[in-house]
Structures are given as structure tokens and as C-alpha cells.
Amino acid sequence: MNAEQFPRPLPHPTEISAPHWNGAQSRKLMVQRCNACTRYVFIPRRVCPHCLADALQWVQSSGRGKIYSYTIIHRAPDPSFQVPYCAAIVELEEGWHMMTNIVGAEMSAIAVDLPVVVDYLDVGEMTLPVFKLSTSP
Ligand code: ZN
Q: In terms of C-beta density within 10 A (0-12 exposed, 13-18 middle, 19 or more buried), how is residue 19 classed?
């Protein structure tokens, strides 16, 4: 089995989420922020889930954060994923959370609260925001 025999399943951007995926292709981590209550919103939505205002604006994240939670996958749900790999929730320094992958690290080196920085993985026509361990805070 190899990845070419089993193409990795990819996201299907919608009208609402397209700015996030387009930003990734430009190496920018884009997130929505509510102009009414100033909170960050992820996953992309039409209205703010905190205050219900129709006032969401796309802004660029610093791309820096820390590992909030993670798991190491040894038996993938799809043969296109090469195991082991790390599925994680990263807490960005702006305070929002994102499900992603931690890449470029030994699985044994991954731990909660470690600093991470966004990186980008080009897969076919898509660019996926992933994170790598950061050596600087
Ligand atoms: Zn709001």
C-alpha cells in the first residue's frame, strides 16, 4: 500500500470555509473574528456562535500556539494515512482551537503544552495547515 494507490481524503471547501483554505494556499492561517464580541470563531460559520451577530470578519492568525490535546494514531481509518501520525487540537495564541496534525516530530516527543507553529502541507490541489514543534516560545 502506498499513498498514491489510496489518495488522501481532502476537505471540500464551502462558500463559508473557502477563505480559510485559500489562505492556507497563500501560507496564511485565516480565522474568523467577530466584530461585535471580538471573539475568534473556528470552524468557519455564517454567524457568531457566541453572540449570534452577523459580523464575522476573516483575520490572519499568528500561527503560533501550543498543543492543547493530542492522540497518536496507529491504526488509520483510511489506508492513505501513513501511521503512526499525530492528530491534535492546537490552541492558538489568540485563544482559539483547531484540529490539525503535528508533523516533523518523533511521536514520543509530542506532549501537551509544547509550543507549535503552523506549517503547510500541499496535498494535490489543497494546502492543509499543520503544525510543527517550535523551539522558540
Ligand atoms: Zn460575537
A: middle
- Report yes or no on 81 lying in a domain: yes
**CA 34 to ligand 1 center in whole angstroms:** 5
Structurally, the chain folds into a number of domains equal to: 1
* Predicted TM-score of the model (pTM): 0.90
Query: Can you give the pLDDT at residue 3?
Result: 46
Ligand 1 centroid, distance to 95 Cα (angstroms):
14
Domain presence at residue 6: no
Instruction: Please tell me the distance from the alpha carbon of residue 115 to that of residue 132, in angstroms, as a whole number.
Output: 9
Residue 113 domain-assigned? Answer: yes
Dist. CA 126–CA 11, nearest whole Å: 8
